[in-house]
Amino acid sequence: MVGGKVLSFIEIFVDPALMDDVIKELTSISEITEVYEVTGEFDIIIMTESKDMEDFRDLLKNKVMKIKGIKTTVTSLVLKPDKGPKK
């Protein structure tokens, strides 16, 4: 948690045929502050900001995971930002 907020990075595996649709949906969610198409193990990495863990749970379960084309996610919660725009 940073300043009372929960920050996270969520790595997302996507059905390649639905990549553009998934990105469009992700960019429309207000709690998602950054969206990146990436190379490597994952297809997309997003940064999220939630007011608490319950809101984060709702974001992941009821918004992100319900997007058609998202296969699975891996989440990393930010413990402390050492450098970056959120510090």
Write the layout of secondary structure elements.
Elements lengths: L5 E9 L4 H9 L4 E6 L6 E7 L2 H12 L5 E8 L10
Antiparallel strand pairs: 1-3, 1-4, 2-3
Structural commentary:
By secondary structure, the protein is an alpha+beta fold. It has a single domain, classed as 2-Layer Sandwich (Alpha-Beta Plaits). It is built from two helices and four strands. The chain has a four-stranded antiparallel sheet. It is globular, with a radius of gyration of 13 Å. The model has no long low-confidence stretch (mean pLDDT 94).
Mean pLDDT, rounded to whole units? 94
In the predicted model, the low-confidence regions spanning at least 5 consecutive residues are none
Largest sheet: 4 strands, antiparallel
The percent range for strand residues is 25-35%
Task: Explain briefly what this protein structure is.
By secondary structure, the protein is an alpha+beta fold.
Keywords:
24% helix, globular, 4-stranded antiparallel β-sheet, Alpha-Beta Plaits, 87 residues, 4 strands, 2 helices, alpha+beta
